[in-house]
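Q: Is it fine to ask for two folds in a single conversation?
A: Yes, each is treated on its own. Send the first.
Q: Here.
A: Result:
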Amino acid sequence: MYFEDFEASGELVTRGPTITESDVMAFAGLTGDYMELHTNEEYAKATKFGRRIAHGALVFSVSMGLATRMNMLDDTLLAFAGLDKLRFVDPVFFGDTIHVVKRVAERKELGAGQGTVTFDTRVLNQDGKLVLAYMDRLLIKKRAA
């Protein structure tokens, strides 16, 4: 999709993966974030969550990948231009299945060849409960004149 294809209405909805213990442990290994809330079940039982949760950064990263898997910007995405209002609303537990809902919030032309599209992005679990929200801005090609 090109810059011109994005309207300020409608939703783009991804499919979604189930977040597993393996995902969390692989992320911990990759980042070095072995915080006990994510890796130690006995510790996590004593927290307000009552069990281990996925890293918020993991959920954010997966949400970015899910949007990429929609293949709507394969040849038109120029850059990830920004992130605002990132909020971790609710935990993602092992076994939760998440998906992403993106809605165009703003389009801004930046000359003849490109523009930015800002999305209001929501990550929901299998129950439709909001777990993560953010505004992401992408630099996207315009159609050739």
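Q: Second one now.
A: Result:
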Amino acid sequence: MPIKKEKKKILVVDDDEFSLAIANAMLSAEYEISIVKSGKEALSVLAKGFVPNLILLDLLMPEMDGWETFNKIKGVSYLHTAPIVFVTSVTDAAEKKRAMKIGAADFITKPFEKEALLKKIKVLVEKHGK
């Protein structure tokens, strides 16, 4: 009987329905995906026990932006090493520099190239896999 390989988990946080649909379509075959529309929802899912191998986080969201969400996630002891990738429409070099300085695993601007994103995700999940 073949051993079933457990899928790595990715949390996708974005307030844009289209971006969430694209992420789900691209990633769900290979990863277990949890999709949320806000930073508050992300924190709720994480508090309920979803421990991702990677987090894809939009920067520009209402209520709680990506920066605040990032800081709150990194403040949770068992999540402080989870790689967080900002996937955003922000193209400002200063924002990318800020993201890398605070410890983001990567900063990818939308629209992204599918194959490049999948390759980066695979590398990060394997590098930080549990």
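Q: Anything structural to flag on that second result?
A: Two points. The chain has one domain: 9-128. The mean pLDDT is 90.
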